[in-house]
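Let us work through a complete example step by step.
Step 1: write down the sequence.
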Amino acid sequence: MAFSRPSYTESVVGRSLLLAMFLAGAVWPQQPKTLQKSRPADQPKAQQQEQEPPEEDESLKPKVYAFNPLEAERDLKVGNYYFKKGNYKAAASRFREATKWNPAYAEAYLRLGESEEKMKDKQAAQEAYAKYLELAPDAKDAEAIKKKLGGKR
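Step 2: predict the structure and record it as tokens.
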């Protein structure tokens, strides 16, 4: 069995490939300093947050409330429906939405206080009642609400 020697060209090509792979492996993990600065891991978090793309899913964006008495009225009606059905948590959520659409909507605060009271959340009920009295101090049921608050007002 005779072993043949590779030709001169095959030998040079083979050695050149080995040298090229060795150099590529040695140079590969090293990056120029200009590239290292642009890596997101090295940037401060404030810059990373500025570079985040805008949210594409509309349902994940935070809801922005602007004065809208029609939305407030609609939320109050839906909240009243839930309240009558005995779903006080859903009712309170709708009344809270109504107060965000119209912060001066006294009836929404009154109904929110009643819902919170039904859910046994005395602190939240007192806050809602206090806001109601602040917005409508001359309401016909103001005295009854003051009694619920324990005479604080």
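Step 3: interpret the result. The chain has eight helices and no strands.
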